[in-house]
Amino acid sequence: MEQINDTNKIIDINGTKYEILKLLGHGKGGYSYLVSSGVKKAVLKQIHHEPCDYYSFGNKIEAEKNDYQRLKDAGIRIPEMYLIDEVDERILKEYIEGPTVFELIANGSDVRPFLPQVREMAMLAKEAGLNIDYFPTNFVVKDDFLYYVDYECNTYSEEWNFENWGIRYWSRTKEFEGYLKQHS
Fold first, then answer.
1. CB 74 within 8 A of CB 130
2. Shortest CA distance to 176 belongs to which of 128, 120, 137?
3. Is-contact 132 76, C-beta < 8 A?
4. What are phi and psi of 43, to 5 degrees?
5. How is the beta sheet containing 81-85 ordered, strand by strand?
6. Angle, in degrees to the nearest 10, between helices 60-74 and 115-127
7. Distance CA 44, CA 35 (A)
8. d(Cα 29, Cα 51) in Å, to the nearest integer?
9. For 137-155, how does the pLDDT look when each residue is reduced to its tens digit (9 = 90+)?
10. Angle, alpha carbons 56-59-61 (nearest 5°)
11. How far apart are CA 35 and CA 41, in angstroms?
């Protein structure tokens, strides 16, 4: 499946109609959209098969399903997965309304109050033998709680843990500024 280009487009997901309200983000595995059924808002992740030179994938939809369960089992605060449409390679999950840590940093907000929460998530992930993707676009703040809104996780590696990799993007570091410049 490709990127869904039309906002206000109505799509059917397992028999329920959803209106695409806006594109939330584009990652290694898919495009995430804010959608509404008219009753509630949710996030639709549409899997894509675009090449990624720094990451290799197997079956992305199966990985999302498995990673969701591994994160839940580890006790990491994540949005609820509502459904998986394996044929159209779509995932519908809970919408956590709030700013991303990335947005907070870019706008000059101090995210240090959230460091204990991300470090707790990192500890839980490590105890479960996992790393999560610590890039700040993957974390949303709602009611002073930090949520990991991506389901990606990998086998634990010191190189990719929070203290050795993720922390580089959790303030206005040269890495953060470089990303901003490259993606503005």
1. yes
2. 137
3. yes
4. -110, 130
5. 10-13, 16-26, 30-36, 41-47, 90-94, 81-85
6. 110
7. 7
8. 10
9. 999 999 999 999 999 999 9
10. 120
11. 6
pTM of the model: 0.90
Residue indicated by tokens 């500890």: 123
Cβ neighbours of residue 63 closer than 8 Å, sequence gap 6 or more: 29, 57, 152
Dihedral of CA atoms 142, 96, 58, 55 in degrees, nearest 10, equals -40
d(CA 18, CA 121): 32
Question: Count of residues for the chain?
Answer: 184
Residue at token pair 């994938």? 57
CA distances from 27 to 58, 120, 158, 174, 176 (A): 16, 24, 23, 21, 17
Report pLDDT digits (tens) over 68-87: 999 999 999 999 999 999 88
Tell me if residue 143 falls in helix, strand or coil: coil
Q: Percent of the chain having pLDDT more than 90?
A: 78
- Are 170 and 118 in contact by the 8 Å Cβ rule? The answer is yes
Terminal-residue alpha carbon distance, the chain: 26
